[in-house]
Structures are given as C-alpha cells and as structure tokens.
Design goal:
By secondary structure, the chain is an alpha/beta fold. The protein is 43% helix and 12% strand. It is built from 15 helices and 10 strands. The strands form 3 sheets. A 4-stranded mixed beta sheet has the order 3-1-2-4. A 4-stranded mixed beta sheet has the order 7-6-5-8, sandwiched between helices. The structure holds zinc ion.
C-alpha cells in the first residue's frame, strides 16, 4: 500500500463496506482474489477485508496488475456522468418500488452519502427523492402509465442539468396541451359511443389520443350533452363500428374494477389536477382516502379544498377512481355522477375485495 499517510485505510474500508462513493475519485480498491479494482461505491459483491488493497488512482491500481471493473468502470466514466448514472439508478429504484424507500437506504443503494445524494437528486431532478417517490407512488393508474414516459427518460432527452425543466415538460406530456383545453376543445374531433352498465347509461368519448371522457346518466340521451359541456367547441360525432371494442373494454373495467385495464387515456387538466388524479389513481380497489389524505400524499396538506374541486372536475368516471375519495369520518361527500352511484361503486369494490 502506497502513501498510507494519505489514504486512511480504515476510512476507505468503511466506505467500501457502506458502498459510499462521492464520485470524487478519492480512492479505488483492488481485490486480490479477482485481480479487479473498483470504485468504493461499486455494486459488486463485497470482498473480504484481507483481500483488499487501496489505491489513490487507477494508474496505481493498474501498475499493480489490476483490471478495471466492468460494473463501476473506474476509468471510463467522468465524475459527472458517474454521478448522473447514480441518480438515474436511484430513480429506477424508486420507480420500481411499490413502497416508499427511506433516503438513507436509497443513498446506500447507489453508494452516496445521504446528504450528497439528496443534494444531487434535487439538482438533477428539481425535486427531492421523497417528492419524486411520492409522485411515482401516485402514478399508478395501471398499464397506461407507460405512455406517460418516465422522468429519467426526460432527463436524458433534455440533457444534463436541465431536469427541472424536464420534470415540467413531463407534466405537460400527461395531458392535452393547455391551449386546446382553454379553447374548449376547439379544432378537436371527439367520437363517442353509448352503452349501459350496472350504474346506468354510460358514454365513452375519445380524442385521437385516447379516452377523454366517461360519464353516466339515467337517460342515455342526456349523455352527449355532458361531454359537449366539457368541450364546448369540439366537434362531437358518434363512433363507428370500431368503437364497440373500446366501449366494451371500458364497461368491463367498470364492472370488474379490480382488474388492470389497458385503456388508452387522454387525460386533460391543469398540472395541479393531473397531480390530484394521479394520487386518486393510486388508491387501490376496496380502499378510500379522504380529501385531506390526498392533499397530504401530494405533499400539499393545505390543499384539501383545491383537491376536492380537482376531483369534481374529473371527466373519466371510475377509470380515475375519484369515487374512492370520501369526506372525513367516511362520509361519501359529493359525486359528480350522483351519490347513489358512488355508494354502489364502493359497495361493489368492498365486497369483491374481501
Ligand atoms: Zn466495480
């Protein structure tokens, strides 16, 4: 071991054990039994202490006959790139986890100190790991989430360092362009089909991108008006024969709510509404949340009222399950399509869940 006066071996070993590496290339470790040298944050199997020696540089390790590890690539990746990879890895971990992961655990997973990890994450994504995690938790409508793309992809698209922009960009991708929405769907052609289900008459309306409205009424003749009211300037027309399949799929998703359904959606709303609906989409069948709880999950505990109005503005009945949001003490509060339908929906989900 060279320069023992500079490399504190016990600190280095600690860093290897905890897989902590701040990417500054302060040291590398070689594993005698494999002849490979690594960064301290490498995800490969931890070596035994007696098989490890430390180096200040890659050159030093290679001079001793070690080869660079293919996983952590100590020579290839520049520091920035290396750190970015770590953050992207963390994003993937968050995206694939169904539960919230503690900051310290995430940081350990990618081999950064919690403080450094938090700072970098915020820098690259414009949100904290916790916010991102909550956000991802809420993005659970089902399979069609795929069509939303992922934030990490957006980071790559937008280039390094501009990811808060990427984050906003992604939000815009969620729905219709705000301009179109403001103009009441001007220039849009909306096709629809009408059917019936246990909740009454149902209309399913689509833009070229996906289903933009699902509504109920007692009288099927009232249904097109409901859709037209949402998009006053859009051209409404009855769907052709190819509409039957989609219509059936939507009806089935209402009759059998616990199954995942891959219905293409064109979700339209403001950034805030989209956030609310995403949280609403995360509520499992058979469960309910209060308005305050939805606001809390969004990280905006004060916003319960705004949450309630966003929920009232939902145009995709049942598919965005706003019927699973209830008042404090379990009171059903309101429902756009009538409190009886909300009651029926919840009762059905409760019994079929158990
Ligand atoms: Zn390695």
């Amino acid at each position: 071991m060279k320069k023992p006066e500079i490399l504190d071996q016990s600190l280095c070993w600690q860093a290897v054990l905890s897989r902590t590496d701040n990417g500054d290339g302060s040291f590398y470790y070689g594993v005698k039994t494999t002849g490979i040298y690594c960064r301290p944050g490498c995800s490969s199997r931890l070596p035994k202490r007696e098989n490890v020696e430390f180096f200040l540089s890659c050159e030093e390790a290679e001079a001793k006959g070690y080869r660079a590890c293919k996983k952590c690539r100590p020579t290839e990746l520049g520091k920035e790139h290396y750190l970015k990879e770590k953050i992207v890895t963390a994003c993937r971990i968050i995206e694939s986890s169904s539960e919230h992961i503690k900051l310290a655990d995430l940081a350990a997973e990618v081999g950064l100190s919690p403080y450094h990890f938090h700072r970098l994450f915020k820098k690259y994504l414009g949100v904290t790991p916790k916010q991102y995690s909550m956000y991802r938790q809420s993005v659970r409508f089902g399979d069609h989430v795929k069509s939303f793309g992922s934030v990490t992809e957006a980071i790559y698209e937008a280039g390094f360092g501009s990811s808060s922009v990427a984050y906003q960009k992604r939000n815009r991708k969620l729905g219709m362009k705000p301009k179109i929405l403001k103009k009441g769907g001007e220039g849009l052609t909306i096709r629809y089909g009408i059917s019936s289900c246990y909740l009454g008459a149902i209309i399913v309306a689509t833009t070229g991108r996906g289903v933009c409205a699902i509504e109920f009424a007692d009288d099927p003749e009232d249904l097109p008006t409901l859709v037209q009211a949402r998009f006053p300037k859009a051209k409404l027309m009855e769907g052709g024969g190819d509409f039957a399949e989609l219509l059936e799929m939507v009806v089935r998703s209402i009759e059998v709510p616990q199954q995942a359904h891959n219905i293409p959606l064109d979700i339209q709303g403001t950034a805030f509404q989209l956030q609310v609906w995403e949280v609403v989409g995360s509520i499992n069948c058979g469960q309910t949340l209060t308005y305050t709880e939805v606001a809390q999950r969004m990280g905006k505990p004060q916003a319960a009222r705004a949450v309630a109005s966003a929920i009232a503005a939902n145009s995709l009945a049942v598919v965005i399950p706003c019927h699973r949001v209830v008042g404090k003490d379990g009171r059903l509060a309101g429902y756009r399509w009538g409190i009886e339908r909300k009651q029926q929906l919840l009762a059905k989900e409760r019994t079929e869940e158990t």
